[in-house]
Structure formats: C-alpha cells, structure tokens
C-alpha cells in the first residue's frame, strides 16, 4: 500500500514539474523534453513493474513527439523576423474590438519598439485620428479621397506616420490628395471584408473616393482561416455555394467544433500536428482568399464606384528564388496570383516598383517590413498607375 501511494505522489510531482516547465518556457516541446527526462527517472524511482513499464512508455512517447516536432520544424521555413522582439506602450495593442477582433482606439498614440538582441531595430510613435485611422498629412477640403486598407504593410509598421505609403502618396499629388490609412498590423482580408459589411467605411461614401488601395502578402492565406495566435477573436468566413458567409469569430467556431479547436490548439504547439492535412487546408485558404478579394473589389465598386488597387508582395512568374517565409509552395502561390489577376483589378508589383535596389535598402533590418525608402518607391509607382487610368 505504501509503495502504491509513493508512486502516486511521485507521478503527481512529475506532472507538476512538466506543467511548470511548459508554462514557464511557453513551449510544449520543452514540456515533452521534461517528460522524457522524468520518465527515465520514473523507471528508476517507481516501484513495481507496471509503473516502471508505464514510465518507459511515457518516455518513448515524449521522445517521439520531440523528434517529430523537431523534424517538422526543420522542414518549415524560418520567419524573416526571427529573433526580433517588439514591445508597445500601451502593452496590449491593438486593443479588443467587438466587430473586427482588434482595432486601434480613436485619438490615441502608441510607442512601438523593436529590438534584435542588443540592437535597436526601430522606435516609432504611431498616432491615430478621430476615426482610428493612422494620421496622414492634412489636406484642404474638398479633395479626392483614397482609402488604404490592410495589415502592417499598409499601416507602415516600423516607419513614422509621414513615411507610410498613404502619407507618401498624399505628398506626391498636386493638389494634395486626401488619404485615410486604415491599416492595422495582423489583419487579413477577412477583417477588411467585415469592415465593409459592418459599414465602417460608409462615412466616406459621399467624399469622392477615387480608389481603395490594399497590399497583399502570402501570409494572408493563413489569416483567412485564423492560423495565428492573435486571430481568435477575428471574423471568420466560410464559402457556401461559392458565396462568403460570416459565421462569427474563430474562437466561437472552435468552441462549437471541439475537434477543430483541438487541432488548432495542438498545432500551435507542435509543428507536425499543424502539418497534418496542410495541403488541403492551403487549397481551402486560397479559395477563401480569392473570394474575399473579389468581395472587396465588389464592395469598393458598390459603395464608392471606385477601383480596388492591389499592391502585391508576392511571387509571380518571374520570381526565381524562394520567396519569403511562406509555408505555401511557390508554384501554388504563383497560380493563386494568376487567378487573382482574373478579377481585373489594377495590380502593382512591389518587385517591379523596387527593381534594382538591394534588400538592405528595401527592408527594415532583421524585421522584414518595407523601409521608408521602399515605401516611397511604391508610392511613386502607385501614383503612376492611377494617373494612367
């Protein structure tokens, strides 16, 4: 009897140690390493063949999980900004939003600092106006209006307010054009579709909107299915007979479908779990992405009688080397771009706009976001594209 209780309390202690290591290091992988080590200890410390066999089995299982995860992680492309630590004041930014999941507060400011080891990557203060748009140079009314919607690339992460593509585009126009920068880091096309459907851009219906400008990157494919730790409260869509249907948030879906929730939760911690069914999931993401881009084009026409202009940092037929850190194979990305062109929306290639320049000049070091110089080149190309229409 005493031996059985001894084994039980040892097991409880082992589990608490594994849990503590996992929480402290925020890593399921290290929790599995700890489980393997403690499993070996259990073979020695437990009394009874069944307990020792159980400890040996647990060790084998933990080591298998470690090996599978390391192998899957080795095959996955490494993030461009690996090692960069970003901090903001206030800390929890962007704050929660009942419509889009998260969105900047009106009339606010945020101090953002990014470091790579001991090196300062950038330190910028972002300012937001009364409609929660990032500030752009003021222009006298009445003026033509251009809406810029998207993620951190439209937002201008890492650059000053007057260096974003919206701000630089404003200064290129004579007379100056009014631009509204609704970019928010971490957004995907699903956020933009929801913003249109919820009427967040309706205030500009009578304000001579000449174009709606967005910027796409391959990472948007994962965002349309909520594959990101920050996207749980974001809007989720599905395709019903080829039409987009809003279903609530990703978190709500995962509670309604526990298997989907479990797969997501495990995939967040184990690379090999995330890789299960990845090809089929990518095909689903591409279908959703293309449908959302078509919806954005239709909404821009319906509300403003204006074109959707698509800036793209995306591999095309001329791309020779592997593009970025996307988990989607390059031929599939190129095929997606070919289908996107069939929408007929004006498109602007970042690679063409910045041709001949070095990556060191075009990107914020270690971060991967466009530099102010790169954004300036894109703004010039955007002005030429719109002038030619």
Give a verbal description of the structure:
The chain is an alpha/beta fold and 389 residues long. It contains 15 helices and 12 strands. It has helices spanning 2-25, 28-45, 49-75, 152-155, 165-172, 189-197, 220-223, 250-256, 258-269, 271-275, 278-304, 330-341, 350-353, 359-362, 372-387, and strands at residues 84-89, 96-97, 101-102, 109-116, 119-127, 145-148, 178-181, 209-216, 235-240, 243-249, 308-312, 347-349. Strands 7-6-8-11-12 form a 5-stranded parallel beta sheet. A 3-stranded antiparallel beta sheet has the order 1-4-5, with no helix packed on it. A hairpin with a 2-residue loop joins strand 9 (235-240) and strand 10 (243-249). Helix 6 (189-197) runs parallel beside helix 11. It starts with a helix and ends with a helix. The mean pLDDT is 86.
Brief characterization of the structure:
The chain is an alpha/beta fold and 389 residues long.
Q: What percentage of the residues does DSSP assign to strands (E)?
A: 15-25%
Catalogue the unreliable spans.
none
**How many distinct beta strands?**
12
Q: What percent of the residues sit in helical stretches (DSSP H or I)?
A: 40-55%
Number of helices: 15
Category by helix and strand content: alpha/beta
Largest beta sheet, briefly?
A: 5 strands, parallel
Radius of gyration: 24 Å
> Which word captures the global form?
elongated
Q: What string, H for helix and E for strand, traces the elements in order?
A: HHHEEEEEEHHEHEHEEHHHHEHEHHH
